[in-house]
Amino acid sequence: MSAAKRIATVAVDGAAFYFDRGYSYLVPDELAPQVRRGARVTVPFGRGGRVRSALVLSCEDRDACDCTGYKTIATVYDSELCDSPELLDLIDYLKESTFCTWYDAAKAILPAGAGVHIREYLQLTAPDTAPRSETEARVLDCLAAQGGRAELRALCRQLELEPGDRAIAELLRRGALLKTAENRRRYVSDQATSIAATAGFSGKLTAKQQQLYQLLAPCGNTGMPLRAALYQTGVTRSVADRLVRAGAARYFEQYDYKEVFTVESGGEQPVQLTCAQQQIAADIRGRMDSGSWGCDLLYGVTGSGKTVVFVDLIRHALEQGRQAMLLVPEISLTPQVITRFKKLFGQRVAVIHSALSVGQRLSEYRRIRQKEADIVIGTRSAVFAPLENIGLIVLDEEQESSYHSDSAPRYHARDVACWRARRHGAQVVLASATPSIDTYYRAKKGEIALYQLPARYAGAQLPQVQMVDMRAEMAAGAVEDLSRPLRRELQKNLQAGKQSILLLNRRGYHTSATCPTCGAVAKCPHCDIPLTYHRANGRLMCHYCGYSAPMATCCDNCGEPHLRLLGAGTQKLEDELEKALPGARILRMDTDTTASKNAHRTFLEAFSRGEYDVLVGTQMVAKGLDFPGVTLVGVLGIDNLLAGTSYQSYERCFSLVTQVVGRGGRGADAGRAILQTFDPKNRVLQLAAKQDYDTFATEELQARRYLLYPPYCHMAMFSLSATQRESCLQAGRALMEILGQLATGEYAGLPLRLMGPTPFLVERVGDRYRYKIIAKCRKDARTRQLFRTAILQLAEQKKLFGVRLAVDFWPQGEI
Hints:
Layout: E1 4-12, E2 23-26, E3 40-45, E4 50-63, E5 75-78, H1 85-98, H2 102-109, E6 116-124, H3 134-145, E7 149-151, H4 152-159, H5 166-174, E8 177-185, E9 191-197, H6 207-216, E10 224-225, H7 226-233, H8 237-245, E11 249-255, H9 275-290, E12 294-300, H10 306-319, E13 323-327, H11 334-345, E14 349-352, H12 358-369, E15 375-378, E16 390-396, H13 413-424, E17 427-432, H14 437-445, E18 449-453, E19 464-469, H15 470-475, H16 484-495, E20 499-504, E21 512-514, E22 532-534, E23 539-541, E24 548-550, E25 564-566, H17 570-580, E26 586-589, H18 599-608, E27 614-617, E28 630-636, H19 639-642, H20 649-661, E29 672-677, H21 683-690, H22 693-707, E30 714-722, H23 725-744, E31 752-765, E32 768-777, H24 781-795, E33 804-808
Parallel strand pairs: 12-17, 12-18, 13-15, 13-16, 14-15, 16-17, 19-29, 20-27, 20-28, 26-27, 28-29
Antiparallel strand pairs: 1-2, 1-4, 3-4, 3-5, 6-7, 6-8, 9-10, 9-11, 21-25, 22-23, 23-24, 30-32, 30-33, 31-32
Helix pairs in contact: 1-2, 6-8, 9-10, 20-21, 23-24
């Protein structure tokens, strides 16, 4: 019997869902100790042998006689997941529940940038090879002109060939060319070179070497970062190299942690819990002590002190020797939250969100892995933090759609949090002043525990809300976006030395450029959406694909020389405020002004210090912020949310209005709010003005029961896109037929209602047409198997290649 060989089953990067399966590769003996489940490797894949990243799913030993014909794993470049069975099982969970590939799931769990960039090269091995075609001659001549070696893709671009061109494949087969690959890390390593002196060294040193040695000697074995040592002594790297060669010092690598958020510990005043807060905290602490997992809803009005309860529960988790996680929906919320928790818990807090640099994210990931941080605060992706003993997971503002990922894997952070809590026997606390209707329904049914804080902390009152009828304003001749009542209140607030917040959920200056003669609107050439005028750069911009163009001087349709700018965004509102409030210090926060690193923190800290009088922005200023000096809140342009295309439009409008109104009156002074609308009698707006969530939720549930919408069913959306409208529509019809056949055949009895295919409201984005199929269904394993079978059958129709398909069980858009 021949010797056994190691075979690894891997999932490759870049695989479509329908061919995402395990592929077997031979493990070289020298790599065998590193190749295990969870390792990331590079492998030659496909007929052309293109090198790809891959995730090892399993390994087994086979008889060498059964291993002929297998391709061989090229390199091992990452083993972050190998030592965490939980995160490996989480990959399987994401693949099964969200219709993503194994590799997509792995990339979601690992920190951004923890991959490699693979570069393939062609090298001449036999320069005298006689070409058999004109294309072969071009390839050989081009390589010879570049010294016999060139990057494959660069060479193909130069020659206008595909990397898998037949001529290149033939030259490789005949041995005229050799293809190699190099792995390059996508990030700058978070390891830094340090240097330490050798104790007791008595050899001869130069003056500069002696200077460096004397600096290092008191540091002992811990040494110091090489860069710092060179900086402090003023010597060059060559001096340090010679010191090491002389045996007087040694180099070693250590992690160079990049500080994410510098806050001085202490200074946070202890807060006395109210009786209601004490009772809620005690109940949840008892559930944490039981060691069994559970899910709770903490529903409290804005300013009721939910964060104080979080602090108490997190402290209890740490006292148990366990770890905690606090998720927030927006990057804009993290500065205030992190500041508070770092003052309380210092370096035990790690931060994870997309605005951090790659190096910072990797540093925080390492700190968590090495148990130097046991509290994780962050946005959606922080739910994958590699904590090993979780006692508590909190989702603040749990109703927010940003907890859902709209790219593969299309998961909801709430689902992942519950999955991990089951694994650890932890408690999940969902907190909000306006819970999602689904969560509220589950709490009322008793599926999860319900805790309520119906009053503001320390007896503070909710703001008084005034509705302004914008139809009456227009009839009275008002042409500005700021109504007269809001303008007066802003002036009063400014004179009183108080701060104000204005919400307008549209960025830019004007929302469209329209021809007054023919009515044509300037549109993006790649998307079916009007361009938005941005005064800051004088350009028309697409908020979908990023296309921009200079402001048009005439209408493309009829030649009219004067286009009319209609609608208002945050930039235009900022201009109006400057005219209405001379001398006022105005701060605008939207995705245009907060694109730079640390912009959120810088702006919010400045506003908190009183350096600005008015904060105007999009919905990033509406939630979770706590400024005691704010006594006036204004809400503009809210009617467009009521006219949304989703069954969740009323819920989102109610939540946004309630949340932003709740930013006012959180200090010693009473708050007030002004809500501008063209429909002041609208039931949703009236209930939001009263902050009457219970009545709103009851009425919304009645409507959804009648129309059969969640929580009385589940929703899934199949999204199809293609460069040709007809291909997209054809694929949608074929999928509808397949789903119908399966639902009446093999999967008969499953509740399923299908609608579509229909175009998205914005049918074309980035030169791709988009259609959708909506399914009302039950979210269980059998339904997912039905969908999986349908996708695989659709993939067999080769005429539909090029059509992209995605399935989402938490669709947030037009349904």
